[in-house]
Write a structure and sequence with these properties.
Number of helices: 11
Distance between the termini: 38 Å
Strand content: under 5%
Structural class: mainly alpha
């Protein structure tokens, strides 16, 4: 049976992902390592009814790390590496377009995040932090976040020629998004002006979507508005990623 070009391209990208242990294993296990650390801290903290429930943040934070690691760590740097090796230049001489390259490159990342989210959410359900009825919504939110951050990852990797530079920029975006979204530090603990400003970031809307699905989660924004902001941001960054993508190091988009 003859395989389609898109399927063959997706399989090639999947093999490239697994062959690069520096990026792949870090992105695969990093969320679980952080989950273990934060769960230990959460269980060690004394109960304070007036303080935010730290354990309510642990699983959204872990899913956030899984999504951003797949979208940034194993996307921006490896894509720039393919350009450095000349692989993208060769693909640019074929009928493969920028949009097809990006969506076939993303398939392996989607599968990885789906597997990670399944394990993380199973643990969350077993600890009573997520209701079974909310699992489909959380899977959908994780994939929506992967699309948004994936667009950012392809925007970075599609422009920068140095794999190290692309990885560093992607890591900076990941950390900034984590610490400014209200997951690492609850927004309610920040001054009013800072809280209001940070709550308007697209990454905060994504974090809010996850937090609202937790057993004791409260929505900072209406759910429809959060979905609208994340979808709109995704459309913008994916459009920019496709439009500005470079096949070769010397190319000007």
């Amino acid at each position: 049976m003859k395989s389609s070009p898109a399927r063959e391209l997706a399989l090639m990208h999947g093999r490239e992902l697994v062959r690069d242990p520096k990026y792949f294993y870090f992105a695969l296990f990093f969320p679980f390592g952080m989950l273990a650390i934060f769960l230990s801290l959460g269980f060690a903290m004394p109960d304070d009814p007036d303080a935010p429930d730290f354990l309510q943040l642990v699983f959204p934070m872990s899913i956030f790390l899984a999504v951003t690691s797949a979208a940034l760590t194993v996307t921006a740097g490896p894509l720039a590496s393919l350009r450095t090796k000349g692989t993208l230049r060769l693909l640019g001489t074929t009928p493969v377009g920028r949009a097809r390259l990006i969506y076939t490159h993303m398939i392996a990342r989607i599968l990885m995040v789906t597997a990670q989210a399944a394990v993380l959410l199973a643990l969350a359900v077993s600890l009573g932090k997520v209701e079974l009825s909310r699992l489909p919504a959380l899977f959908g939110i994780a994939l929506l976040g992967l699309a948004m951050f994936g667009g950012i990852g392809y925007l970075i990797g599609g422009r920068l020629s140095s794999p190290d530079a692309a990885t560093n920029v992607g890591t900076l975006v990941q950390l900034a998004a984590l610490f400014l979204s209200g997951l690492a530090f609850p927004l309610e603990l920040m001054p009013d002006t800072v809280r209001t400003t940070l709550s308007m970031l697209p990454t905060s809307f994504f974090a809010d979507l996850m937090l609202t699905q937790m057993s004791e989660g409260d929505a900072l924004h209406p759910i429809w508005l959060s979905i609208l902001v994340v979808v709109a941001t995704t459309v913008v960054v994916v459009f920019l990623a496709v439009r500005t993508f470079k096949w070769d190091q010397g190319e000007t988009a």
